[in-house]
Design brief:
The protein is built from 5 helices and 7 strands. The protein has 226 residues and is α+β, with helices and mostly antiparallel strands.
């Protein structure tokens, strides 16, 4: 199958004007009007030659199409696409393009290799991203777990007994000091001598908020606050 350059009889290095003149020459030579009274075989041959010339000009007359065509030839594509039912296909944009089945096997192999390499690059990119996402996901999980653990550890149940030795009343209650001395629990809305913060045996000490220490009859000291 001839190339588009061979169809128009020009060199692959020919300029745009030279290609245009060659196309006009071919168009005049194979125009259907010149073969109206010719036998069907000859008129059909002329019609086929006219289609080849039209396709050659469509490709070579456009700089971007010509560049792609030259690249296809360089990569091993067979000579130009004849716009017939056998060796061409029509795409949705209405442009007749070369049937991929007519391309040289080496060109197809090169194209498949290029597609596989591109797919490998995409897969490699995804594989590189996955460990990064997993790492950040792990950090987020650790942060959430740590925050939850710290929150749980900081939330201790309220004390219901006096810190230290037992003194007969619970921590946090309001008390009055009685003879003995001993402590009795009273409503915090009335007269009180303090609120129980804790107690200690000899050698211990009261917490910082203590405003009054009461040494009880059993030798234990109660710590009272406001």
């Amino acid at each position: 199958m001839p190339t588009h350059y061979e169809t128009l009889g020009v060199s692959p290095a020919a300029g745009h004007d030279e290609i245009r003149r060659a196309y006009l020459k071919a168009a005049r030579a194979y125009h259907p009007d010149k073969f109206v009274n010719e036998p069907a075989a000859r008129s059909g041959q002329a019609e086929d030659s006219m289609r080849q010339a039209n396709e050659a000009w469509r490709v070579l007359g456009d700089n971007s199409r010509r560049a792609r065509y030259d690249e296809a030839i360089r990569l091993g594509a067979t000579a130009g696409a004849r716009p017939s039912r056998v060796d061409s296909i029509r795409t949705d944009d209405g442009i007749t393009r070369v049937d991929p089945r007519l391309l040289d096997p080496q060109f197809l192999a090169n194209r498949r290799t290029s597609q596989v390499e591109e797919l490998d690059k995409q897969h490699s990119s995804v594989l590189r991203v996955i460990p990064v996402l997993a790492f950040f996901g792990l950090l987020i999980g650790i942060f959430i777990f740590t925050a939850y653990a710290n929150g749980s550890s900081n939330t201790s149940p309220p004390e219901t007994t006096v810190p230290g030795p037992a003194i007969g009343v619970d921590a946090g209650v309001c008390v009055r000091i009685q003879q003995g001395p001993t402590l009795i629990e009273v409503p915090c809305t009335g007269v009180i001598d303090g609120r129980v913060l804790g107690a200690y045996e000899p050698g211990g000490q009261c917490p910082d908020l203590t405003i009054r220490e009461v040494e009880l009859a059993n030798g234990v000291t109660a710590c009272l606050g406001t």
